[in-house]
Amino acid sequence: MKVTLIIHGLSGGGAERVMSIVANYWVRQGWDVTLIMLAASTKPSFYQLDPRIKLKSLGIEGKSTNLLAAISNTWQRVQILRREIIASQPDVVISFMNSVNVYAILACAKLNIPTIVSEHIYPASTDVNKIWQFIMKWTYRYADLVTVLTQNALPFYPVAQGYRTIVMPNPVTTPVPMVTINRLLPTPSLIAIGRLHPQKGFDLLMKAFHQIQAKYPDWQITILGEGPMRSELEDLRSQLQLTDCVHLPGAVQNVQDYLRQADLFVMPSRFEGFPMALCEAMACGLPVLAADCLSGPRDIIEDGVNGVLVATEDVDALAAGLDTLMSDSAKRQQLAENAPQILDRFGVEQVMEIWADAIDLVIARKRR
User: Which of 310, 306, 298, 255 is nearest to 280 (CA)?
Assistant: First the structure.
């Protein structure tokens, strides 16, 4: 099987993490895998890639200053991408994330190559402008298959309007042995992971922790990740007088080592798709507390059994949830024991079987 994968780039992020997992899996199965990035490759991939993957960096990303420039730039990007797709001679093309999906569909027009596009955020929470939303809705009808992360995302691409859509959860990898034996986190520790962006709600986490910090003077928070909200979060940390107990070390690659040393994982997001950090924390046997977003956490967590859900964007509810779990080591232990069962539902082998069936389906349809 020859598969061409397309994504914006391979910096740290959930969709990028998933693409690295599927690319590595397929090349290890003997598939011929080409991975095309729209962004310029100025540094190595944040995630480790098998050297047998053919990595192509086009350097065609960027913003347009006006509508005419946007149309012209889009046309040029599509033509460049089309040439790369043709050169890779794939049996199937798979793209990740909304604007990249549009480019992929347009680039594959009339090539008779099965095309699968994958949404990696809950469609109602997408931050693209209305013009791009319209373009996405129109072009997605020409994809051979649209994958979404959860059942409640399916209504955004109804069959009655010409979409072919299935649920494709993210694959969760089995934890690997620890890379380091050094102490990475203070004890006891809360840990949160994600891009420093309003979506992830780390400002809410700081405010919630501030409410109960006096009760738990020994506990500390480590937030792994980087992003545009760093200065704002650092300022908030100072305002709340949490400088000594909230740490922002940036993005790290040995995430599982940090997870194994933490006492509680917290995901205070305002919205999600199918959060990889939450899944990986559970796979590592960590008790988790998550905001009950419109999509994602409720598909992963059985409240009170393998994790705890609290109301979204509710600082008081988040503080109460933290208080409950930080004060109850027995409850944390119970959640931790049940958490790794997530691998029974969303382990790599299980999800890659769904991918294999989807690819067989679109290829068979194209041959009719």
Answer: 255
